Amino acid sequence: MSGSPREYSGREAVVTHDGKRRIHAAACVPGLPSDFDPNAKPWISSDAAPGAKLAELVARCPTGALHRNFRYRRAPESVPVKNEAKICGDRRVYLRGKIDELGELLLQDTRIALCRCGASKNRPFCDGSHTRIGFKA
What we know:
Blueprint: E1 6-9, E2 13-17, H1 51-60, E3 66-70, E4 84-88, E5 92-99, E6 109-115, H2 129-133
Antiparallel strand pairs: 1-2, 2-3, 4-5, 5-6
């Protein structure tokens, strides 16, 4: 994948956000509005919530667009013991686990959302095009 994720540095952690993988799943904003405010500049602040809450919320990001690294000896994001695949209606396929190869090595990650409709401009990843084209499975 081309492009670099943006970094948002706080006292305890650095949150990275990869805009190409963001599909507005909206797990972050209602989960921690103190740290994720789409109307603010910058929209991510990793200082408002306690580190454990921030880690928990970032791990729920289903696409892997968000990641966090703590500055002081905290464990990195853990890889789920068991790989999971979840098909979300007419939208996307979410994968969680040790995901390190899709035909060719595109990225190594713990969470991704794959396109089901074929219209994504960021294949094999979902970019939300299913909504625009009215895709039905």
